[in-house]
Write a structure and sequence with these properties.
3 domains, five-stranded mixed sheet, about 450 residues, mainly beta, Immunoglobulin-like, globular, about 10% helix
């Protein structure tokens, strides 16, 4: 919205007063202005745990940004947006809180915040309206936190992408000189809870897998489900699941909420469960296409479950420039998806085309098939596999090795034969001489010089 120059804030004040970058973007360009705050207390800490109080100077006045990590992929950013400099045309002034989730989107391809259900970065609105996510407005004064407002475990709740509530609470104080104080009534829980990111997709009879780590005592739960089914935390051989009292309704969404307690520590959970008739189990797809002619491909789409399941579908990446496909797919026992490749002059011989086939639910759950196409007009023959570069090189090495062995074998045989062959040695013949010791001519000689006159 209007809070960031990378969004509609570029046009604040008619484009003459663009907003400063929000904290996540500030970290990319000026990481030295970001201070990381670790809000994990040791197990020996006395309750309640009192954290630091941090004074926040305005971003346009050189102030720093606070970053509170929630996990390896998630962080909460806290910054003071004041009425000065480029920020003088913002919708309001106060403490702006944003949540970043690096597990969604594709930052390298600049594909972030493309799905409002799974935002890469969003504003934690102080009025709890979520108007920016829904696109109802571009930002308003009630989005920022002011004196005596709170967020985190109390006030405006902040949860990670598993639906687990953060254990700390931040309280804003001051009018112009704002500060934020941190506390945690129950400190940091001794155990962790891990579920599927952004909700779990299950079949009607499935339970929800849940990982509980670090618990030294037995765990229990007090959970409810928005679809009216009973819910219980069940442990078998050290593995936990959230089980329902009855079968779920296909194509429905339920919200499991409540607490999980292990000993004296408690974690509050609010997790979304999607129930489908079938769940895709995609695998990579490779195929050959013609570089000039239309090629129709059938992509297998295996799945688990029973009956049929309709999902939205679209192509992504370079593939979508040369291919088209239906906007939906119906999964069944023999689910397939048809892609039509029309080169339109964009393909050449031996070109590789990469892309993705993405199928998704309306709530944002998605599955991806990695697609790789090779453009070639060559017709496959029995010897085609032998012409592949890897096979040709292997064959050449084999021929060279055979040639070397043949040479060595032949040389060995030659040397062996030479060693065994007898050598003829001429015996010395006696030479006839005359009385003066001169050799007597051989009458068989044809050499005229042998004849003495």
């Amino acid at each position: 919205g209007d809070w960031d120059i990378m969004a509609s804030g570029n046009w604040n004040g008619g484009g003459r007063w663009p907003a400063m970058p929000t904290a996540a973007n500030m970290e990319l360009i000026r990481p030295e202005r970001v201070e990381t705050l670790n809000l994990a207390w040791p197990e020996t800490a006395a309750r309640p745990c009192i954290g630091p109080t941090v004074e926040l100077e305005g971003i346009t006045q050189g102030g720093s940004v606070l970053k509170v990590p929630l996990s390896d992929d998630e962080s909460v950013f806290i910054e003071h947006r004041s009425d000065s400099g480029f920020d003088s045309r913002l919708p309001g002034t106060g403490v702006l809180v944003t949540y970043q989730d690096l597990s969604v989107g594709d930052f390298e391809r600049n594909e972030v915040n493309t799905n409002p259900n799974l935002p890469w970065l969003k504003v934690i609105e102080a009025d709890e309206g979520d108007d920016l996510v829904r696109g109802s407005n571009q930002g308003e004064a009630s989005d920022v936190f002011l004196n005596n407002t709170t967020f985190g475990a109390q006030g405006v709740e902040i949860r990670n992408h598993d639906g687990v509530l953060v254990p700390w609470t931040a309280t804003v104080s001051g009018e112009e000189n704002l500060s934020v104080s941190f506390s945690a009534p129950d400190c940091t829980p001794a155990f962790t809870v891990d579920l599927s990111d952004h909700g779990t997709t299950v079949l009607p009879t499935d339970a929800v897998p849940i990982s509980i780590g670090g618990a030294n005592e037995a765990c229990s739960s007090d959970l409810t489900s928005s679809d009216g089914r009973g819910v219980a935390l069940v442990e078998r051989n050290g593995t936990y699941t959230v089980q329902f009292s009855m079968q779920g309704t296909p194509n429905s969404v339920a919200r499991v909420a409540g607490t999980i307690a292990c000993g004296e520590d408690t974690v509050h959970l609010e997790h979304t469960v999607h129930v489908l008739n079938r769940i895709p189990t995609p695998s990579p797809f490779k195929a050959i296409v013609h570089p000039q002619e239309t090629t129709v491909l059938t992509v297998p789409m295996p799945s688990l479950g029973q009956g049929e399941q309709r999902l939205s579908a679209h192509l992504d990446g370079p593939l979508e420039r040369v291919a088209s496909a239906p906007t939906s797919i119906v999964l069944s026992e023999t689910g397939e998806f048809v892609i039509t490749v029309e080169p339109n002059g964009l393909l050449s011989e031996n070109m590789l085309v990469h892309g993705e086939l993405v199928v998704s639910t309306s709530e944002g759950q998605s599955w991806t098939v990695d697609v790789e196409l090779e453009a070639t007009s060559a017709v496959d023959s029995w010897y085609t596999p032998l012409t592949e570069p890897g096979r040709v090189i292997g064959a050449m090495l084999a021929v060279l090795a055979l040639s070397a062995l043949t040479t060595v074998f032949a040389r060995s045989k030659s040397e062996e034969g030479a060693a065994q062959m007898p050598v003829a040695v001429d015996a010395a013949k006696p030479v006839d001489v005359d009385a003066w010791g001169r050799p007597i001519d051989d009458e068989r000689s044809a050499d005229p010089f042998d004849v003495q006159e």
